[in-house]
Write a structure and sequence with these properties.
Blueprint (H helix, E strand, L loop, with lengths): L6 H12 L3 H12 L7 H9 L14
Length: about 60
């Protein structure tokens, strides 16, 4: 039985074959934008304490 592979799968395999460093660059980008280090409890408390309360409807101009 042959395993089906979509056009998207074929495209991605060809792209990765043409650009061998692509996956490493993807991992680097993920580390920059998504994989964050944990915040220290003191820093988290400071951030919460420094928040400015926002009005219920921020676009309302009349008080």
């Amino acid at each position: 039985m042959a395993l089906y592979q979509s056009e998207a799968t074929h495209f991605l395999k060809a792209l990765k074959a043409q650009r061998p460093g692509l996956e490493a660059r993807q991992r680097e980008g993920r580390a920059i934008w998504w994989d964050k280090t944990a915040i220290e409890p003191d820093e988290a408390k400071r951030q919460l304490d420094s928040k400015v309360p926002q009005k219920a409807y921020p676009y309302q101009t009349k008080t």
